[in-house]
Design a protein that fits this description.
Layout (H helix, E strand, L loop, with lengths): L1 E5 L5 H11 L11 H10 L8 E5 L2 E13 L2 E11 L8 H15 L4 E7 L3 H10 L2 E12 L10 E4 L5 H5 L12 H6 L5 E7 L2 E9 L4 E7 L8 H13 L2 E8 L3 H10 L2 E12 L2
Parallel strand pairs: 4-5, 10-11
Antiparallel strand pairs: 1-2, 2-3, 3-4, 5-12, 6-11, 6-12, 7-8, 8-9, 9-10
Helix pairs in contact: 3-4
């Protein structure tokens, strides 16, 4: 018999083992060490009291990890990973997990739930729609080898020691996803590489990068200084330190300028995702 409960009493080692087994045959198979899962939990604000697991005879067979944060002044829960071990699929475990999770969210007076799902994962999309989730936007994930060199050397690049978020957000065209959010950056601040590009003392743009995952979390340029090679100069400054292979995840597909910039650098879309949301109150 399957029982559902929250995960605060479940060890990180057990969650990591079931996580890896669940994703071993995923559309893009991947795995995490215990330490990488702990980092994920920090950066994505995962709360085990809001995360749920399915158990058979005290053995974890499926889970949904949930992060928590305030988004647009709303108490928001983020699905940071859903998995069911291969031997137990086909039993509507994910639907049962969400049935239970929604009672937990309502108890804690949450306002919204958000998640990302690969656009070709029809079974998961069907489950989420049946739960009440609706499409918010489509997201593109890029990776590849950056080619060429920067042709601009007119501006000075310096380490970005502090984040003036009011100024940095003024450079944005799109809202970052949960994994690339201000909260995620702040929680991983000591592990990230951040640079700003300047004309004198004026900040023109910036880049924030995770050397461990080789992933760019944020990159933005002041609108008044675009099409001057500033973004490219930041990218090639990064490649001079960390090599030229990067990924950039969850870029809003509506941002055609960002897509053109990344593809011109030599990167390509390897996965498309839907961001979906469920309003609770």
């Amino acid at each position: 018999m399957t029982s559902i409960q929250t995960l605060e009493s479940c060890s990180i080692e057990k969650i990591a083992a079931v996580f890896n087994l669940s994703f071993s045959d995923y559309i893009i198979p991947f795995s995490l060490t215990k330490e990488q899962l702990e980092t994920k939990m920090i950066s994505e604000s995962i709360v085990l009291e809001l995360s749920v697991g399915a158990f058979e005879e005290d053995e974890l067979i499926g889970f949904i990890l949930h992060g928590y944060g305030i988004l647009n002044n709303q108490k928001t829960v983020y699905n940071a990973g859903t998995g069911v071990i291969p031997a137990k699929r086909g039993n509507k475990i994910t639907a049962k997990l969400y049935d239970y999770a929604l009672t937990v969210f309502k108890k804690h007076e949450m306002n919204n739930v958000v998640l990302e799902v690969i656009t070709t994962n029809d079974a998961a999309i069907k489950t989420y729609r049946n739960t009440g989730f609706q499409l918010i936007r489509e997201l593109n994930c890029f990776k590849g080898l950056v080619n060429g060199n920067s042709t601009t050397h007119d501006y000075e690049i310096r380490d970005l020691k502090t984040y003036n978020w009011q100024q940095l957000q003024s450079f944005w065209d799109i809202q970052p996803s949960w994994q690339n959010s201000i909260t995620a950056v702040e929680k991983l601040k000591d592990y990230l590489f951040a640079s700003g590009i300047y004309a004198g003392e004026e900040l023109l743009g910036y880049i924030i990068f995770n050397p461990d995952t080789k992933r760019i979390l944020q990159l933005a340029v002041d609108r008044a200084y675009r099409n001057k090679g500033i973004g490219r100069q930041l990218i090639f400054h990064l490649s001079s330190k960390y090599g030229n292979e990067f990924s950039v995840t969850n870029i809003d597909s509506a941002s055609t300028n960002t897509t053109s910039f990344l593809t011109d650098l030599g990167m390509h879309i390897f996965i498309k995702q839907y961001e979906m949301g469920l309003r609770l109150k």
